[in-house]
Amino acid sequence: MRFQLLALAATLASLGAIAPPALAAEAPQAGAVVADGASLAIRYEKLKLANGFELILVEDHRLPLVAFNLWVHAGPRNEAAGQTGFAHLFEHLMFAGSKHIARGQADKIVDAAGGTDSNGSTNFDRTNYFFTLPANQLELGLWIKSDMLGYMIDEVDSVALANQQDVVRNERRQTTENRPYGIVDEALYQALFPPGHPYRAAVIGSHADIQSIKLADVKAFARTYYRPNNATLVLAGDFDPAQAKKLVEKYFGPLKAGAPVPPVDVAPVKLTAEKRLQITDRIELSRLSLAWHTPAVFKPGDAELDVAASVLGGGKSGRLYKKLVYERQLAQSVQVSQQSAALGSVFEIDVIARPGKSLDEIEALVDAELKALAEKPPTQEEVERARAAILTSALSQLEKVGSLADLVNRYNQDAGDPGYIGQDLARYQAITPASVSAAVAAQLGKQARVVIQATPGPKVLAAEVPTPPMPTKAAKGEREALNADAAWRAKQPAAGKAPTLSLPEGRRFALANGLTVIHVPKPGLPLVSAALVLRAGQAANPPGKPGLAGFTAAMLQEGTRTRSAQQIADEVADIGAALSSSAGREDARIELASLKTHFAKGLSLLADVALNPVFAPAEVERQRAARLAALAQQREEPEAVAGVVAARALYGDAHPLGASALGDEAALQAVDSAALRAFWQANYRPDQAALVVAGDVTEAELRPLAERLFGAWQRPEGAAAAAPAAPAMKPTAARLLLVDKPGSPQTALAVVAPGPLARDPDAASIKVMNAALGGLFTSRINQQLREVKGYTYGVYSAYAMGRDSGSFAIRGSVRSDVTGPALADMFGQIQGMRTRPMDAEELKRVRNAQLLSLPGLFDTNHVVVGSYASNWTWGLPADHLVKLPQQLAAVSAASAFKAAQQHVDPAALIVVAVGDQAQILPQLKAWGRKPLELRDADGAPLAPAANQADKAADRAAKR
């Protein structure tokens, strides 16, 4: 659902504590958002330069950060016939270099400055480019953005174009062709929109069209759309407006305006007869998709259909979830959305069926619910739940200056008013149950929809489009200029005075029963996040019972001594909160996000599900069916399969982390209420738990609340002081494992090895070293495989450093026909990291990327809670996060080099490749890493005969 803001006067009035400081009318200098008890407004200033460039300033001094959010008002709606995917390809090219910033350097400069949230995106109606920098880098950010907009065309050449064509085509393979239901989603829009409509093709485009783009096309698109009179920059954060205006005039004012942008005139589309399609895909579970044309963004009916989507599909309280997932147990999941856009919106319902269940039966039940909603208005309670959810989501969007800036830009383009929030609120204030019902009756009829039934079977893709060889250098005469140059643009601006670097401090206290409470006060917005974290993760699974920790965590919300599963879901929805429970590697977490006014109620629900679950047999059966279906879904995803196989190969069959987090069929079938209760009693205990809370709540408010809700919780009698130690890791002797996915256009890779623990004294050096190796977009591995070779959409490395176990992994997907060369390049970068220390420039960049970015990485309650929860799980000192800046600052080239030599051992790396065996096995054999084994999707070795396939191929080749 498109993000919108909703608040009734009564709801806002109830947020009495909205005062400090970011929502304070009496303190306008603190934040950009104002609430006066009856309305919500974003304070901004908008101006236009002489060349037509729009600037919107949104002051927000909560954190020493500035978000730079540049929208170019062009997207697929502006593409010419036969050039689908062009707008998105152009987005990639904007990062490929400009006249004064060499190719690949902009991202490195942002890293070195401590930038966060650096990326771009394209939707049907616009393309945006964004990052957030420390407040002392205001001029640097404007220098980068102005050079991208005004001088990219000076630098783009055939080499950059060819490289990004490869990257984008890899993105298409990964996100559309190698993803379950990806081709179904694409077919849905092709059925909804007629040929020639700009929304008909996927934003990513087709291989043929992407590959057909010429350099002349790129230059023409830039001349037409990438001009200052077709762009808007929002600055949101901690800056001086007078200085910002002066600098924007300096950097953007000289850019030459283009001709008026050609208007997009498209007639509204309306189906008059139902369209039905049957599509097969390489999937385990069938899916039903229904879609309708609906009113464009902000047009009458758009808001009503947002609410209708919530009534039908708003989580566990939605009508379709209750009917299809909970009551009938026909569906694995339900998603309903109103996808709003400028030329017309799409209302979509997607239902993934449980194994063996009928899509026809599911469709009949969906139609019955739609008919009921069209004929009889929803209850006032259902409408209020929708409003509460949208309000909480809206305020959450305002936590980050980056998402705040993007919201302002969205209002500016879609409504013509950056401050449209008031009118947006008014739309929702006017909604009644009757108006929701009327919108459903008018818009969601059977005669006006597309229905797709996707079932398991062959994946039919378009004919392969060859990937041309990468040119080695540009031809003469490829470059041109749109804007006059100036010598001062060639010099990178100096940073201003650096702000004091500090992180939010967690204050600890303990209850008498041993429960640790970690409190991080974070006033500003009336929001609070919390997590009850327990040493009850996958590592606590008993021998022979994989998946038990996750099963137990999932069952917590399925009924307590005083509430049924549906009552829990409804009460959470009533207050617009989010409540979840899950088990990770070393801990289980029950997480809550809510408005401040509803925090006490939300925390009482969290406490109830944690302390009073009943594990009713009927609910166990429902959850068992869901988890068995999820196990089937897991086998659809090549990346997930690579992860499962890698874990088993790394830890061994006897280790609890060696199995899938879901377990296996035998273990899931064996679980009963008694086993779940026994695990809960042994592991859900106050002396092995911490309650972490961050947000607009004081210790004086939190302490008595925690005591009231958790004070009576007792450690079970006879419980051991600590869980027994897990068995040792037993990695496989094989160095290369292959899982066959016939016809896959990509190979999913997981390259893994044992790693250090969180308390390793070299942890900071390991983190900085990994940033250079594979942790950043600008890392050596990703740059080589993506930006130099065009093999992938992205490959990254990471350390999972826990309390009792640690691992290292490199993950990503590469084009099938270059799997062997990609691995060879990857290992070459690893060897280079171990051969010589980083030079001073690289060390400073990757260290600063970790150090100076810290304020931008702790800008939401959810992230703060998650960080302190992990800190507790890993057994790190209470002040670890506060001391993290000085630990990172102390990393040297020598300490990072030592970390590479000690913690990245090429000989220990286990390579897992999931892809088309016929294509990739010869490449892997040519690469030469041995021993090589064939595995199934669960990581089990195949029969010996199957594992002789490579030897048979050897013999055939010799003959």
TrEMBL record:
The keyword Cell inner membrane does not apply. It holds the Pfam family Peptidase_M16. Residues 213-389, 672-849 form the Peptidase M16 C-terminal domain. Residues 938-959 are annotated as: Disordered. Residues 59-193, 523-642 form the Peptidase M16 N-terminal domain. Residues 939-950 have a biased composition (Low complexity). Residues 1-24 form the signal peptide. Keywords: Signal. Belongs to the peptidase M16 family. PANTHER family: METALLOPROTEASE (PTHR11851), MITOCHONDRIAL-PROCESSING PEPTIDASE SUBUNIT ALPHA (PTHR11851:SF49). This is Pitrilysin family protein. It comes from Roseateles violae.
